[in-house]
Amino acid sequence: MLLILLAGAGFGIQQILNDPSYWGGYVYLVGSIVAIIGVANYYFGPRKAQLVLSKEGLQNEQEFYRSWKDISYAEVQYIRKGDSTYYYLEYGYSLGHKTSKFRTEISSWDISPKQLEKLLKEYEEQYQSSRFMGN
Q1: How far apart are CA 101 and CA 56, in angstroms?
Q2: 48-52, 100-104, 123-127: which has the highest mean pLDDT?
Q3: pTM above 0.85, yes or no
Q4: Distance from CA of residue 98 to its chain's centroid?
Q5: Domain containing 62: what range?
């Protein structure tokens, strides 16, 4: 992608050098530079965490934190639609006297569904054992 955008910028520079009054070269150059900056920020810029897990609780990508004591269940769901399988993280939590649930697709995350299932189980167990030990 970056090579194509660099080629577009080079083409714009070549058009400007050949005929400075031709506005198309400027369009190519400016458009390519804007796209290069956007692509570079997307791939190399700061990234928000998709999910933060700890023995105290979890925080989703919208930055809502829930303690394990408020979470009634947390699971990875597999939903088949035709030939495709979609993976979701779903958890239920209490919010005062009301019970709600959060669900988000995890297919684009940097973790496999199996790894996420394992981590959810491990952190939930750590929370339970720390409660048992009084920590």
Answers
A1: 18
A2: 100-104
A3: no
A4: 28
A5: 51-133
